[in-house]
Structure formats: structure tokens, C-alpha cells
């Protein structure tokens, strides 16, 4: 492969690959142009291939050190450029980056296939794997050997030449399709924002939300108020807007995304993605894609995951019927009325209006005196703002993280929505921790909060507050990583375990020892009244049946699509969606899935295919851990240290479920989850 140079002087180091000289290896984003990425990838691909060739042709017998560890530590330039590019493309896309992503989808897949199907390399991995029990390996080393062997086999290394050719073709095509899905969804979500020409239509929204809608319209070159869509089916604005007609307009815009027969329609992509995933699974000896995916998870089988959803679903639907009857008061509800009625019932459930809690949830205070304060109390973490360091966008803030006074990494916070950012909230890594490589973590949290007007404060809804704590739970998992090998670092754990630490961190959002620190009125500084805090805790003590049904329906839909055989792909995507939900007992005319098929980004563009069940699977561990913390005294440094030492710091260097059971002293039970979800009857 020929080496391409940067668009700068031919003898200059490409700025994407150059050592920035900044703390922890933070990239010098200001020096990088979009034109630098593909040339940087050319260099990185070639370097990685050279490293792989050296391992594959080594004349010495294959050992852990000269094969498995050497493979693990190869490709550092490639990891660097990908860590930079994909941390830009998701939260700050543009047409150039979208095109680069489409190009890279195929090139990265082809590169990975070429390595996985290198016969000489696989023979050496296979030899180390066969001798692993007698090689005196540590547990992390043995797990690394086993994971590399499984990864190679699952990528087609053990197939014959014809099978490998088929795998290459399907993998490249899937990379293109899934990238296209994500880009169509971003484009249609932006295009589907709802324009209103009368501010009276926005009655129910806060002054800040109305100002943001006015600003969004102006930025789009339109007159009026533009209500942007969030990623899930349920929209926060629909829970507040007082006009049923306005609510319907926004609701319809949300649930018809990417299914209107225009250039953003994703139904053709869904059908082809599902078929190719099913064919790939069959080629590798699995019944379907779900079985292929769950072979690497903590859940024992697709049936086990589906059974958990079914067990919870029956109780949730019964609770949902009662909930709808209660909030409807005998009146007929339409789908766009449900979240509004739920919010209204929540507000009127006592003498206190819990919507007032937003006035006490100002972003800066929540971060400083809530999220970071809890992390300090539990884990000894401190955050120091570094205004001398700069992120990839002016809104991104950079902080240095220390543990017990010793610097351990950087945290980048990117909190505000913009048209270039895909919806939702997530955590990502620019750099992963690894003792073997001598790297410390650089972690990013991305949200889509409404940016306030100049001089105003960003106030968080209760859901947004919980999300900020959730995503920082992922960040803690990455920041506290203490492993040798980068592929075992931080959140590099099974998909149905990865949400567990982030869900645990949610428990501190309203904990008495935390909420008192940040919950002060954004204008007066007065602490939140005790009655308001009690009302908020009471309102969030259990999940609504509505939110449980939304989630379970999406998880069931994911499994239904991915338990299909390659010859069973339906022609009508939306008809299959309804059929699958009816068969799962989760069909509701009033409560759509959290994500419908056509805009299910987690599954058709992200890494959650056959894995969306993982949130509730992880929640079993989370609910148990919450009780463990509370029984031990709550916000306690020794408990935090025990949790960090047993789980958070270990990544995938040990079996994470066994590590959690060892911390508890027993296996986790489902009872605490059922109680939290208000579904205790399901366990009786």
C-alpha cells in the first residue's frame, strides 16, 4: 500500500499522527484539518500491516509475548487516528466528515478482515491458544489469548477461501449500510424539526426552551420557532406542550422519521442489514445474528434474554393498563397525550410541583457540587478545569482528573446540542488506559442539552439530570481503569455489562448526601425545599410503567429482527414491527417503542445489535449494587474503593460478573430490580 503524505510539506508529520506535546497526549485539534484524516489513515494502515507481517513471519515458535502481546500492542497509529476522527464525526459532523466516515467504513472493515484472515498470523494465535493452560499465564493474559482466538474465528479466520471471500464482501457491505443508516437518521432528525409561527403554540415550554427554539429557527434561516427532535420516540417537549394539536404535530414528526418514502427512508437499509447479518451468522455456524452476538455476552442465550423481557413485559403491560386508566381519568387518550398526562399526573400528585426542581438543577452546580463531588467522596477523584487545553469544538471543556491527588487522565465535556451532533448522550474514548502502552485515559461525555442564551443558565430536567450522572458513570469506568492491555481497558467489557457501572452512578443524583450540595436555586442560591426533594424522590422511586414498556418493546424488537434467518426477511418493515411486538406481548397503540425500527440507531448504526436488552440485564446488577451501597452506609469512601477495586478498575481483565459476585458475596438476584420497576408481582 503506498504511503500518502499530509497536505502539508511532504517531510512533515501528519498533524493527526504527530505528538502534540500536550498533557496525556491530548490531540492538538486546532492543528488538524479534515483533509488530514485520510492521509493519516494511509500511513496508519501501512504501519499496522508492517507490524502484523513481522509477527506472522517471525521464525521463532509462537509465544504469548511474540504473538498475542505483540498483536495487542500493534496498530497504535491506527488507534490514534480513529480515536480522534470518530470522536469528531459523532458530535460534530459535517459533509466532509460524513464522506470520510463512509469511505472509512469500508476501508477499516477490509483492513480488519485482512488481519483476521492472515493464515500465518492465525496459525500462531491458534498455537498459543492451544498451549494456554500450560504457559503459566496470568488471568488477564489467558483472557487475552482466548479473546484474540475467538475474535479471529468470529471474523472468519477458520473459514475456507470461498467462505473468507464471502465474509469480506458481506462485512464491507454492512459497514457501508450501517454508516448510511446513521447519516440518514441525523439528516432526517434535523429535517423533521417542527416549525411554529406563533409562540402561543409553545405554551408549556420554559422561557429558555422557547428562546432556544427561536434561536434554532434563526440559525436555520427560518422565521418562527423550531422545535428540534430528540432521538427517542417520546419527546420532552410533548410532555410539556399544552395544545393537543401541537403535541400531535411533534409526536408524528418523531415516530415517522426515516419512514416517509423520501431520501432519508431507512427501510431498505434495515432489510439488507438484517439479511446480511443473518447470512454472516449462518456462515460462521450460528443459527442467527442474535446467537452470534450473545456468544460473547454474559447472557447465556437469546432465549434467556427474551425470557427476561417476557417476564418483565407481562407485568409491565398490566401495570401500564392501570397507569393509563389512572392518568386518563376515564377520558380517551391519544398517543401524543400519554407523556403529557403522565407528567401532569406527576405534577399534581401532591402539594408540590416537581417541575420546580429544574430551578435547582443548574448545569455548573450539578457538575461541580453533584457529579464531581460524589466521585470525590466515593473514589477520591477531583476535577480541575484546564482552560489552557482545548477540545474539538468551542463548547467542549477540558478538565484534568486526579485520584487522591495524582493525575490519571483528562475529561472532555460536550454538553450542548447543535445540528452537527447526532442525538442522544454517550461516552467515548480518545485514548484508552494501558500500562503496557503507557497511556492514560482521555474520556469524552457528550449530551444534547439546550444551550442557554448568553448570560443565562442551563437548567436540567429531571431526566437530563439522571443522564448526566449516567454518562459520568461510564466516564468513571474509563478513568479508573487499571489494566495492562488496552483491549481490556475500562468499558471494553461485554455489551450487557457495560451499562452496569453507569446505571449505578445514577443512584447518587438524588441521594441526600449529594443533592444537598448542588440543588440550589439558580438565581437566589437558596437550597431546594425539603418537601420538593421528598416529592422528587417519591416521583422517581419506581419507573413508570410507560417507560418500562417503551424500553422493553425496543429491546424485544431488536431481538425479533436479529433472530430471523436469512430467508425470513419481511418485505414490509413496519408490518413486521407490529407483528413482533404483538408476539412479544408488548404492542400498544398508545405507547410506541423507545425507538422504532427506522430510527433505531443503537441497533442499525451503533454497537447494540441483539444487545439492547443489555440495559435491563445490567440493571439486575445495578439494583443489587445500589442496595449494597445503601446497606453499607451510602456515599462512603471505603465502599467506593471496594467497588472500584473489584469492578471499575478491572475492565475485562477478569470475568466481570464473577468479580461483581465476589464483591457482593453471592450472585445477583432479580428482586431489587423488580421493586425498582414497580413490578414486584412478576417475581412472585
Q: What is the top-level CATH class of the largest domain?
A: Mainly Alpha
**CATH fold group of the largest domain:** Neurolysin, domain 3
What is the β-strand count?
7
Total helix count? 25
If you average the pLDDT, what whole number results?
A: 94
| Strand percent estimate | 5-15%
- Could you say which overall geometry the principal axes of the C-alpha atoms support? globular
Uncertain runs are 1-11
Named at the architecture level, the CATH assignment of the largest domain is Orthogonal Bundle
Number of domains: 4
Q: Main β-sheet: number of strands, strand sense, barrel status?
A: 5 strands, mixed
Strand order of the largest sheet: 3-4-5-7-6
Amino acid at each position: 500500500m503506498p504511503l500518502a503524505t499530509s497536505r502539508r510539506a511532504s517531510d512533515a508529520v501528519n498533524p493527526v499522527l504527530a505528538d502534540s506535546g500536550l498533557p496525556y497526549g491530548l490531540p492538538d485539534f486546532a492543528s488538524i484539518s479534515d483533509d488530514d484524516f485520510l492521509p493519516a489513515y494511509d500511513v496508519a494502515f501501512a504501519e499496522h500491516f508492517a507490524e502484523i507481517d513481522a509477527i506472522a513471519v517471525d521464525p521463532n515458535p509462537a509465544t504469548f509475548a511474540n504473538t498475542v502481546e505483540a498483536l495487542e500492542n500493534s496498530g497504535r497509529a491506527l488507534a490514534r487516528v480513529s480515536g480522534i476522527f470518530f470522536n469528531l464525526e459523532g458530535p460534530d459532523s459535517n459533509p466532509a466528515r460524513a464522506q470520510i466516515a463512509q469511505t472509512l467504513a469500508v476501508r477499516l472493515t477490509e483492513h480488519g478482515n485482512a488481519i483476521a484472515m492472515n493464515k500465518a498470523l492465525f496459525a500462531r494465535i491458534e498455537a498459543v491458544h492451544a498451549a494456554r493452560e500450560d504457559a503459566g499465564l496470568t488471568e488477564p493474559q489467558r483472557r487475552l489469548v482466548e479473546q484474540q482466538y475467538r475474535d479471529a474465528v468470529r471474523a472468519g479466520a477458520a473459514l475456507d477461501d470461498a467462505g473468507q471471500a464471502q465474509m469480506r464482501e458481506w462485512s464491507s457491505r454492512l459497514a457501508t449500510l450501517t454508516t448510511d443508516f446513521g447519516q440518514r437518521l441525523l439528516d432526517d432528525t434535523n429535517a423533521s424539526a417542527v416549525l411554529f409561527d406563533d409562540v402561543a403554540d409553545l405554551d408549556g415550554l420554559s422561557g429558555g426552551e422557547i428562546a432556544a427554539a427561536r434561536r434554532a429557527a434563526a440559525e436555520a434561516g427560518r422565521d418562527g420557532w423550531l422545535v428540534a427532535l430528540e432521538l427517542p420516540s417520546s419527546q420532552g417537549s410533548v410532555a410539556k406542550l399544552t395544545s393537543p394539536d401541537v403535541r400531535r404535530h411533534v409526536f408524528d414528526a418523531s415516530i415517522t422519521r426515516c419512514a416517509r418514502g423520501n431520501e432519508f427512508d431507512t427501510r431498505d437499509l434495515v432489510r439488507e442489514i438484517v439479511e446480511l447479518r443473518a447470512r454472516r451468522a449462518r456462515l460462521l455456524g450460528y443459527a442467527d445474528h442474535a446467537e452470534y452476538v450473545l456468544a460473547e455476552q454474559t447472557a447465556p442465550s437469546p432465549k434467556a434474554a427474551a425470557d427476561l423481557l417476557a417476564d418483565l413485559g407481562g407485568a409491565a403491560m398490566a401495570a401500564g393498563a392501570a397507569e393509563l386508566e389512572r392518568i386518563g381519568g376515564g377520558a380517551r387518550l391519544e398517543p401524543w397525550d400519554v407523556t403529557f398526562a403522565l407528567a401532569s399526573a406527576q405534577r399534581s400528585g401532591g402539594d408540590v410541583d416537581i417541575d420546580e426542581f429544574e430551578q435547582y438543577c443548574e448545569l455548573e452546580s450539578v457538575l461541580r457540587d453533584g457529579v464531581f463531588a460524589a466521585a470525590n467522596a466515593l473514589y477520591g477523584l477531583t476535577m480541575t478545569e484546564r482552560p489552557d487545553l482545548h477540545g474539538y469544538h468551542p463548547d467542549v471543556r477540558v478538565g484534568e482528573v486526579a485520584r487522591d491527588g495524582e493525575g490519571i487522565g483528562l475529561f472532555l465535556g460536550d454538553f450542548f446540542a447543535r445540528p452537527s451532533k447526532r442525538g442522544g448522550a454517550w461516552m467515548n474514548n480518545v485514548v484508552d488506559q494501558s500500562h503496557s502502552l503507557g497511556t492514560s485515559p482521555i474520556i469524552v461525555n457528550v449530551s444534547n442539552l439546550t444551550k442557554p442564551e448568553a448570560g443565562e443558565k442551563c437548567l436540567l430536567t429531571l431526566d437530563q439530570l439522571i443522564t448526566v450522572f449516567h454518562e459520568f458513570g461510564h466516564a468513571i469506568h474509563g478513568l479508573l481503569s487499571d489494566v495492562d492491555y488496552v483491549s481490556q481497558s475500562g468499558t471494553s467489557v461485554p455489551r450487557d455489562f457495560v451499562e452496569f457501572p453507569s446505571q449505578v452512578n445514577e443512584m447518587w443524583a438524588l441521594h441526600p448526601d449529594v443533592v444537598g450540595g448542588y440543588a440550589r436555586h439558580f438565581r437566589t442560591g437558596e437550597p431546594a425545599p425539603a418537601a420538593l426533594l421528598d416529592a422528587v424522590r417519591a416521583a422517581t422511586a419506581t419507573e413508570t410503567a410507560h417507560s418500562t414498556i417503551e424500553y422493553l418493546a425496543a429491546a424485544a424488537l431488536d431481538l425479533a429482527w436479529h433472530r430471523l434467518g436469512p430467508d425470513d426477511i419481511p418485505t414490509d418493515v413496519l408490518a413486521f414491527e407490529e407483528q413482533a411486538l404483538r408476539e412479544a406481548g408488548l404492542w400498544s397503540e398508545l405507547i410506541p417503542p423507545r425507538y422504532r425500527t427506522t430510527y433505531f440507531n443503537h441497533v442499525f448504526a451503533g454497537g447494540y445489535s441483539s444487545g439492547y436488552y443489555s440495559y435491563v440485564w445490567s440493571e439486575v446488577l445495578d439494583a443489587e449494587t445500589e442496595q449494597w451501597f445503601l446497606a453499607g452506609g451510602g456515599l462512603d469512601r471505603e465502599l467506593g474503593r471496594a467497588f472500584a477495586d473489584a469492578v471499575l478498575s478491572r475492565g475485562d481483565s477478569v470475568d466481570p460478573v464473577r468479580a461483581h459476585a465476589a464483591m457482593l458475596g453471592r450472585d445477583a438476584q432479580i428482586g431489587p430490580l423488580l421493586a425498582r420497576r414497580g413490578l414486584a408481582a412478576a417475581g412472585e
